[in-house]
């Protein structure tokens, strides 16, 4: 890791620690409660001591009664304090989650936007693991363990030999715990990693159930998953086998130490160096002193997986600092200015777009054409600020998109991606982008997208619930609902990436009407398409070829250049997407007839 990365990771670690420290008051309360609880925990041993050494020797029933009343009151107080302490921890746990979960959610979103490969749920699972560890039993153990010397001191006060024996026993048990952690850690780490990857692959693959069923891929995918899963089970078993061997020894050792403590006490009683009460009380105290040590050993077993989760989370938070707040510029007219734009996919440095430079006045419609892989969708992503430029700038009116607050910008933009994605929720919620629901605006968008009647025919109309990724609608219906979502609240710029990819002829005609409505509403519109029909409505036409702007200008002029054969060879081929050849007029010598002839005929 470079020094810069290490610094970022430290900062992110600091972010996690800061979130915990913002609950300093709760920790202080837990510490105080733990202190009182631990002092009260001396009560059973002291009660036993008093009963053996004072009551039984003096035959004093009154003393017994008073002692019993006192100890009952102490137990009641102890119970109440334990209850209050757990309530404070519960509040701490909820607060910790509330502080960090939205931040982790945003970071997971940014990571997915960048690479698209992350198991989006993993960071939230990591946070949950961290929260459970930091606010669970291990927290109590951490606060109780410092009281161990107090118990030890009391035992030393009973007799130095008893104290030494308890100290030695504790050291041995801690050593065995450490050995256990050391011998199982690599296997648990490996098992955790394999479990994570096999879970991620299984859920990603099973989501594509129809493809799996349609092409009989289940056996192969199962085999692939089983290899990972069996690896996880093997590592887990290895760790468990070692753990149970050591735990068995540990249990035996613990019983031996406790029994021998009683034995040492009895021997000291026989030597008249201690009373019988001290012998019994000493044994109880040892049991009490070892409890938090046991809990700490248990926590150390979870430690390696918690550390892994913390490392993953710190890396994620370091890589994706809180989203910049940006500015809320006034509502733009919608003019699009692209200046010397060079851009690459977020994970890469090799540009797929170079030197794109054009201006589109507000309210105009631009159509982008080009062969497959020319960079049309990449440009569409840049125009909605989903990809940031490597060089150059995309401005909405005068303000660079990167300077906008992303939510404010998003509200002014409509985007229909090539790969339409709807979310689980009602049709209306999807159209309203899951924001505040305004029925009139939802219906306005649906009417503008020409999908209002279609939605009314769905079983529950606008309230029809869709599954993940718009399950329940056909491909064409999904595309049209997504078009309505792009037009929700009449944005100032609409970018449609192949809006007619899933539409039939009637759908194409409907789309022409939609674009006419968009123009009428003075909304700036950019349409990426392979189909020539939309050219009729375009004010400007751009031809992309191999990531560069082969031509741009008023539609008629660009078409003329293509017709005259002025266009360079690569430009011409860009206007002729191979899959159109069967549907359109055959190409002339320059290869430009498909678009031009249709336009002339229009
Ligand atoms: N997320 C990505 N990661 C890596 N490379 C990408 C990514 N998106 C696009 N590319 C690359 O960028 C280039 C342009 O792709 P783009 O999808 O923009 O082309 P297109 O013109 O829209 O193609 P089509 O008409 O087939 O949709 C291609 O070489 C593609 O491999």
TrEMBL record:
Membrane topology: Multi-pass membrane protein
SMART domains given in the database record: AAA
Gene3D superfamilies: ABC transporter type 1, transmembrane domain, P-loop containing nucleotide triphosphate hydrolases
Keyword presence, Ubl conjugation: no
Record domain ABC transmembrane type-1: where: 30-305
InterPro entries: AAA+_ATPase, ABC1_TM_dom, ABC1_TM_sf, ABC_AprD-like_6TM, ABC_transporter-like_ATP-bd, ABC_transporter-like_CS, ATPase_T1SS_PrtD-like, P-loop_NTPase
E.C. no: 7.6.2.2
ABC transporter domain segment(s): 336-571
Name of a matching Pfam family: ABC_tran
Biased composition annotated in UniProt, kind: Polar residues: 582-595
Family: Belongs to the ABC transporter superfamily. Drug exporter-2 (TC 3.A.1.117) family.
Protein name: ABC-type xenobiotic transporter
Source organism per UniProt: Candidatus Pantoea formicae
């Amino acid at each position: 890791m470079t020094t810069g990365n290490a610094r970022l990771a430290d900062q992110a670690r600091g972010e996690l620690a800061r979130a915990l420290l913002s609950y300093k008051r709760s920790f202080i309360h837990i510490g105080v409660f733990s202190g009182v609880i631990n002092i009260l925990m001396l009560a059973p041993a002291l009660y036993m001591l008093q009963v053996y050494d004072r009551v039984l020797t003096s035959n004093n029933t009154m003393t017994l009664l008073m002692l019993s009343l006192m100890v009952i009151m102490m137990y009641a107080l102890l119970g109440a304090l334990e209850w209050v302490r757990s309530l404070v921890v519960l509040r701490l746990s909820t607060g910790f989650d509330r502080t960090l979960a939205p931040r982790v959610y945003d970071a997971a979103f940014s990571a997915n936007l960048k690479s698209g490969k992350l198991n989006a749920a993993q960071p939230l699972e990591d946070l949950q693991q961290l929260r459970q560890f930091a606010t669970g039993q291990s927290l109590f153990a951490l606060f109780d363990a410092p009281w161990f010397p107090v118990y030890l001191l009391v035992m030393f006060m009973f007799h130095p030999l008893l104290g030494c024996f308890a100290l030695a026993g504790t050291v041995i048990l801690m050593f065995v715990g450490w050995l256990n952690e050391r011998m199982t850690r690599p296997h648990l780490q490996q098992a955790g990693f394999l479990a994570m990857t096999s879970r991620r692959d299984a859920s990603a693959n099973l989501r594509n159930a129809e493809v799996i069923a349609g092409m009989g891929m289940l056996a192969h995918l199962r085999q692939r998953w089983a290899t990972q899963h069996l690896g996880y089970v093997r590592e887990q078993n290895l760790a468990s086998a070692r753990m149970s061997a050591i735990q068995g020894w540990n249990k035996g050792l613990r019983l031996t130490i406790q029994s021998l403590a009683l034995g040492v006490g009895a021997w000291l009683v026989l030597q008249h160096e201690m009373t019988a009460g001290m012998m019994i009380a000493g044994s109880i105290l040892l049991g009490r002193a070892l409890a938090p040590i046991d809990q700490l050993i248990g926590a150390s077993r979870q430690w390696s997986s918690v550390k892994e989760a913390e490392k993953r989370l710190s890396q994620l938070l370091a890589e994706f600092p809180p989203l910049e707040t940006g500015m809320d510029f006034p509502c733009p007219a919608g003019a699009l200015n692209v200046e010397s734009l060079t851009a690459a996919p977020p994970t890469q440095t090799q540009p797929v777009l170079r030197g794109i430079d054009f201006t589109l006045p507000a309210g105009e419609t631009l159509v982008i054409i080009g062969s497959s892989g020319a960079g049309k969708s990449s440009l569409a992503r840049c125009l909605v600020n989903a990809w940031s430029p490597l060089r150059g700038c995309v401005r909405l009116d005068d303000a660079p998109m990167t300077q906008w607050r992303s939510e404010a910008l998003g509200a002014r933009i409509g985007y229909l991606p090539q790969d339409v994605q709807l979310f689980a929720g009602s049709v209306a919620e999807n159209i309203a982008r899951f924001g505040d629901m305004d029925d009139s605006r939802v219906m306005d968008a649906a009417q503008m997208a020409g999908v209002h009647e279609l939605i009314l025919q769905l079983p529950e109309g606008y309230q029809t619930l869709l599954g993940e990724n718009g399950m329940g609608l056909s491909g064409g219906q999904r595309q049209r609902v997504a078009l309505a979502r792009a037009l929700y609240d009449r944005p100032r710029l609409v970018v449609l990436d192949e809006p007619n990819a899933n539409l039939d002829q009637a759908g194409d005609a409907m789309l022409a009407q939609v674009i006419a409505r968009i123009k009428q509403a003075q909304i700036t519109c950019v349409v990426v398409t392979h189909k020539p029909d939309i050219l009729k409505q375009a004010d400007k036409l751009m031809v992309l070829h191999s990531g560069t702007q082969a031509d741009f200008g008023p539609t008629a002029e660009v078409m003329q250049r293509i017709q005259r054969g002025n266009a360079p060879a690569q430009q011409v081929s860009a206007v002729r997407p191979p899959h159109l050849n069967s549907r359109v007029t055959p190409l002339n010598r320059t290869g430009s007839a498909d678009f031009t002839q249709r336009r002339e005929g229009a």
